[in-house]
Design a protein that fits this description.
The chain is of the alpha/beta class. The protein is built from 10 helices and 13 strands. The protein folds into 2 domains: about 200 residues, Rossmann fold; about 90 residues, UDP-galactose 4-epimerase, domain 1 (Alpha-Beta Complex), CATH 3.90.25. It has a 7-stranded parallel beta sheet, with helices on both faces. Strands 7-10 form a two-stranded parallel sheet. Bound molecules: NADP nicotinamide-adenine-dinucleotide phosphate and guanosine-5'-diphosphate-alpha-D-mannose. The site of NADP nicotinamide-adenine-dinucleotide phosphate has 26 residues, from helix 1 and strand 5.
Length: about 325
Amino acid sequence: MRKRAVITGIAGQDGSHLAEWLLEQGYEVHGVLRRPLNTRFWRIEHLRDRITLHQADLLDLASLIHLLREVQPHEIYNLAAQSFVPASFAAPVLTGEVTALGVARLLEATRLVAPEARFYQASSSEMFGKVREVPQNERTPFHPRSPYGVAKVYGHFITVNYRESYGLFACSGILFNHEGPRRGLEFVTRKVSDGVARIKLGLADELRLGNLEAQRDWGYAPDYVRAMWRMLQQDEPSDYVVATGVCHSVRELVETAFSVAGLDWRRHVRVDPAFYRPAEVDLLQGDASRARQELGWRPETSFERMVEIMVEADLERLRRGDVV
Ligand code: NAP
Ligand code: GDD
């Protein structure tokens, strides 16, 4: 019998890569959209005839109960979230409803309807925020610096709590930033690769960015979805940091991306305070030793190669005239 998996947020970056990976492993993949008629399908267009799509919303418990009753999944991957940090400052309550309480709703639906299903929660290195130690591991205390980070801390602990209280096979993956050509245009790596491609093709002359000194541990999204799946294949549920262990500044990201296109970034990049955040996360660097030892997971794509892939993909896309 084929295993059935439910992925919330299937139309997002990670959802599309995870759907591909699970199809390769022989799964029957069920994806959740909140507004099927309004959804931008570009990341999953090529999978449309191989997956089943359902309408449900993390804001609505009944829709999640109906979903799980219908699918009776073996595995549930909760990737849906309001995932953009600046938007969480603009809409902190909505972010809490979706990114924090949405996890509780899905766990509750799981407990009621599919208690044997294995559950993955998409937790985040943003929970470390104002970091207490470098690098960060599973035991590093949290100090979130945005309403998004605060909401993810709730999502993390409610997942741990349902495991401890009700015996659910629930895992929390604390993933550091991961990117690729399917990243939303608002996140800094994709904003830079898109900006570089536009400048190279003569469609723009400058790129306005915020804090160039922030440092992140950037990995490649297709590598990271394998870690999610591996967590749910273990004998016991647990929580894992997933990261490359290497960090770069936004300035280094910019230098690397512009040099891929043979451009001098100093001639085009302007710092614009509009892109600064009320509170910044200055540095994230993960220690994924546990994932390496217990899951046998390691990243396969370097930062430099990832930036190259992203710039080349945006050059091709813009030459075709595609919007995203
Ligand atoms: P993404 O591209 O923003 O995808 C998130 C998806 O969630 C979108 O498809 C969105 O649907 C959906 N969604 C939003 N609100 C919803 C709701 N109320 N009900 C149902 N679906 C809803 O994010 P991603 O980069 O793939 O990340 C996947 C998950 O991992 C997120 O939870 C994110 O917070 C977390 N995470 C990401 C990273 C990273 O670096 N990418 C790192 C750590 C953790 P629409 O298309 O309709 O907006
Ligand atoms: N978005 C953006 N736009 N970020 C900028 C810009 C800009 O113009 N200029 C500088 N930055 C800096 C931000 O201040 C931040 O320090 C860093 O670039 C990364 O920003 P994002 O790419 O927006 O990602 P993030 O680190 O805030 O959040 C992402 O990673 C988290 C994991 O640590 C998101 O994917 C979250 O959902 C995820 O949990």
